[in-house]
Amino acid sequence: MKYHQIITLRDGRKCVLRNGTKSDGYAALDNFILAHSQTDWLLSYPDEISFTVEEEGEYLQKKTDCDNEAEILAEIDGRIVGTAGIERVGKHEKLAHRCDFGVSVEKDYWGLGIGKALLYACIDCAKRAGYRQMELEVVADNDRAVKMYQNAGFVEYGRNPRDFLSRYSGYQEVIYMRLELTED
Question: Which domains does the chain carry?
């Protein structure tokens, strides 16, 4: 799904939010690995990443060419500093109204509004794609993210106290949240 917006960050810098293309494979993969090495709140560790630069580029291009999924890159001064995306929960008709959301931002860029901007960009894409519900999972002690999602209208619909088993901190409780995109 195509997306393009320029935002002004809290520090006054401009940030381009845009869909990725095949040529962004290296930069997006580099960002993905870095962001996943900087926090224990994301799903995977950098050493678990098994896709290549070429596969990442193909993934980005596929999302750009797709009508109902998106991967959005946050770019500052030509550097990818964050990514976010939506994808259909499943291929079956009964699941077609739901999409899943994920986001990551490099730690040096936390607190500038990039995560929030990526979230709202994905909400916009989800609505344009015709989804009725957007879903996410967030580690419960990631207070800033939980608050950001609540402020955007997401509501909690469950928790799993042993969802993630961190290499560093043991079990992590995960909150399941959803945002109703339509009133029907």
Answer: 4-180 (3.40.630.30)
